[in-house]
């Protein structure tokens, strides 16, 4: 009976060990969003020694508070280590900087964190044009903006959403949105707004037209 009890206890221990090691060694991925030309900070502190890697390859390291962050041409003069905080920062962002980064602190306080960086193009201000023909009974507006990945384009009239479109890719250079409003006899002035936004930025343009 004792041997059987020990066998079951050891079996349970071996079953739990993988879960224990998994919870200690694993880390959830933190999303980081930036725009082209700006900078981001990876907020896992490496105060003494550690590394930062990009897609599995080491691109910067700190050893006894001495940093080396120009290990690859891609991040030359753009990857920095801040001694006061222990944070790595990446400046002058480019779209091809997107990807998985891992920061590891190998001395106390030890830690590891994965970051998924997404870098978006800057959002430009939309342009609103009146494309109405004189003989038409409708007022036609065209809202257009330089297209980038993940862009939303909304057209409003007096804060009421009238039309919407979005971009899943940047294959088209321009994203357009049309609106037709029936003309009125009293020629009221209508304020139409066009708003573009991505995860990182939002820009808007207003256009007043007589109907």
Automatic annotation (TrEMBL):
Keywords: Signal. Gene3D superfamilies: Immunoglobulins. Residues 29-120 form the Immunoglobulin domain. The keyword Transferase does not apply. Residues 1-26 form the signal peptide. It comes from the Eukaryota. PANTHER family: CD48 ANTIGEN-RELATED, LFA-3. This is Immunoglobulin domain-containing protein.
